[in-house]
Each structure stands twice: as C-alpha cells, then as structure tokens.
Amino acid sequence: MATLTRQEIGGFLARQGILVAFALFMVGFTLANNRFLDPENVMGVVRS
C-alpha cells in the first residue's frame, strides 16, 4: 500500500484544488438541500 507524503498531497491540491473544492461544495450543498442535485438544477449549473 502506497503512502502519500505531505509534498505529494500538496502537489495534488495545487493541480486539482478547484475540482476538490467543487466536489466538497457539491457534497455540502446536497446535504443541506435535497433539491440541489435535481437534474434541472444540475443542468443549469453546467450551462453556466
């Protein structure tokens, strides 16, 4: 099993940080509001 070092994690976040933040926001908003992942809302976000 490979272990990640702080430097590897930092490099990953530097490259993919916006995607990680987006995923965390999606999870947070989904837990806060059941209609957040409604297909109509998701398509509106994708279009914008």
Description:
This protein is mainly alpha-helical and 48 residues long. The protein contains two helices and no strands. It has helices at residues 6-32, 39-47. It is elongated and about 40 Å long. The mean pLDDT is 87.
Fill in the keyword field for this structure.
48 residues, mainly alpha, 0% strand
Q: Main sheet, how many strands, which sense, barrel?
A: none
Estimated share of beta-strand residues? under 5%
Low-confidence stretches: none
Oligomer: single chain
Q: From the alpha-carbon coordinates, what is the Rg to the nearest angstrom?
A: 15 Å
- Record field, number of beta strands: 0
Please state the structural category. Answer: mainly alpha
Order of helices and strands: HH
* Overall pLDDT: 87
Q: How does the overall form come out from the CA principal axes?
A: elongated
Separation of the first and last Cα atoms: 41 Å
Please, how many helices?
2
Helix content: over 70%
Short characterization:
With 48 residues, the protein is an all-alpha fold. It is built from 2 helices and no strands. The longest helix has 27 residues.
Helix and strand topology:
Layout: H1 6-32, H2 39-47
